[in-house]
Amino acid sequence: MQFAKRLQPLQSNVFADMDTAKAKALAAGQQIIDLSLGSSDLPAEAHVTEAISRSLQDQSTHGYLLFHGTQAFRQAAAHWYEHKFGIPIDYQTEVLPLIGSQEGTAHLPLAILNPGDYALLLDPGYPSHAGGVYLAGGQIYTMPLRVENAFLPVFTDIPPSILAQSRMMVLSYPHNPTTAIAPLSLFHEAVAFCQQHNLVLVHDFPYVDLVFEQTVNNQQSLAPSIFQADPEKSISIEFFTFSKSYHMGGFRIGFAIGNAQLIKALRQVKAAVDFNQYQGILNGAIAALTGPQAGVKAAVATFQVRRDVFINALHRIGWQVSPPRATMYIWAKLPEPWSQDSVKFCTHLVEKTGVAASPGAGFGKFGEGYVRFALVKEPSILETAVEKIAQIL
Questions:
Q1: Whole-number Å distance between alpha carbons of 258 and 250
Q2: Residue 370: pLDDT above 90?
Q3: pLDDT tens for residues 30-46?
Q4: How far is C-alpha 14 from the chain's CA centre?
Q5: CA dist 44 to 169, 283, 325, Å?
Q6: Domains and their CATH numbers in the chain
Q7: How far apart are CA 24 and CA 361, in angstroms?
Q8: In the chain, is it the N or the C terminus that has fewer CB atoms within a 10 Å radius of its CB?
């Protein structure tokens, strides 16, 4: 049996590899503390699940849902964005429902790239960004994220020969896995750069709310949106998900906002692949966007407490790691003798202790030497995990 060559770059995936390692450890009798996957352990809010529950009793929600049936959701998404960032959004042409932001970042290259075209991606970066480019037959040029540059890309390092063949750039801040936050000035630089070189600018924005610093008025700080640098939406598209802020990962719901032509092109790709989600899921998402937001603030406070507990525990065992300013992760530079083999460290860790983490190498060449821990357990379990980590350090 022969398969398409486009599958060859997809043979390895950090989450699939760790899933295999976890299964082996479990079979060997280890109790698993899974900190490898950024799947929130917090529950969806009651007003969200109640909206879905009510929908189940409504037979009219049980059929296929075409684009025009998503109008109420698109209106809610546009209003939510306008309220948060103060930039007007046309819900008719600038919003598209998605099955999570991962679907959007994976499908968009099919609408932009011809075989052989380049996409400019962050390294380390989220695996689906690369996967979508490979499925479209594109090539990848990685923009290294180094600690000395605050894990921000340096656009002037991209060779002119690569830029001549490039069609899109993908950014994502607050960043997974490094937890870095990009200043608005970087987005202004990125917009100008992409306009100059005729590139589509993609911003994956799942951690829009998971920022820990507080302003003087005790209001939650905001990570910048790409449209604050490109308010006309001249070249940009931004992806949002309900998995992080609203703990709806299993419901598979997100949306894109952006340039009307980009939204239309992505909609064309999506129409060839699937219909929309069940109407009840969209009703729950509307409830999340339009209902009380106290749960979002409480979740941020929860992850901040977990961050502090985990960092303090690491410091007690002699592993010095800087506290992240955002996301639900710890991005830790590996100590010796593990500093150049994150896969070996994570495999050994889960085998000997049952603690599962994600190797930095799984996020790209420049992720090597680091490990990512997801703060998806109660503080007492996180402290137990660090006690177990100490056994192999």
A1: 25
A2: yes
A3: 899 999 989 999 999 99
A4: 14
A5: 33, 13, 24
A6: 5-43+295-392 (3.90.1150.10), 60-290 (3.40.640.10)
A7: 21
A8: N
Q: Is 268 left (phi over 0), alpha (psi -120 to 50) or beta?
A: alpha
Token pair listed for 116: 């052989």
- What are the tens digits of pLDDT across the range 233-288? 999 999 999 999 999 999 999 999 999 999 999 999 999 988 899 999 999 999 99
Confidence of residue 214 (pLDDT cuts 50, 70, 90): low
From CA 233, how far away is CA 243, in angstroms rounded? 25
Burial code (b: 16+ CB inside 10 Å, e: under 16) for 151-184 equals bbbebeebeeeebeebbbbbbbbbbbbbbbbbee
Name the pTM for this structure: 0.95
Q: Which amino acid is at 46?
A: A
CA-CA distance, 96 to 253, in Å (whole number)? Answer: 11
Which DSSP category does 234 fall into?
S
Query: How many whole angstroms separate alpha carbon 105 and alpha carbon 205?
Result: 11
User: In this predicted structure, what is the pLDDT of residue 221?
Assistant: 65
The CA distances from residue 173 to 1, 153, 182, in Å, are 42, 11, 6
Q: CA 141, CA 120: separation in Å to the nearest integer?
A: 5
Q: How far apart are the C-alpha atoms of 371 and 393, rounded to whole Å?
A: 14
Closest residue by Cα to residue 105 from 132, 74, 135, 76: 132
Give yes or no for a contact between 221 and 215, defined as CB atoms under 8 angstroms apart: yes
Q: Which of 148, 146, 221 is nearest to 183 (CA)?
A: 221
C-alpha distances in Å from residue 196, one per residue of 139, 217, 259, 263? 21, 39, 17, 21
Helix extents (H) in the chain: 14-27, 46-56, 71-85, 101-112, 127-135, 160-163, 184-197, 260-273, 279-290, 294-316, 342-353, 379-392
